[in-house]
Amino acid sequence: MPARKIQVGQVWKNNDSGESFLVTKIYGEALATYAVLRKTGAEQEPPVRIKVAQKGASAELPGYTFTQESDDF
Predict the structure, then answer these.
(1) Is 71 a residue whose pLDDT tops 60?
(2) DSSP summary character for residue 3
């Protein structure tokens, strides 16, 4: 599900595993924007870097669902 803007502190759910991830950093690199995600409850695991997909006025993380707009968090 796309969000208007991806921001630090948002929670996204992995579509394959169902695990929740917290956005800890957003940064631009060349012509792309990336989000750094950490699995909730597992801060010792390495972070995951995902390229942000822009779709018109909204943004999304491929393979993840924005949980604040669903009842699944």
Answers:
(1) no
(2) B
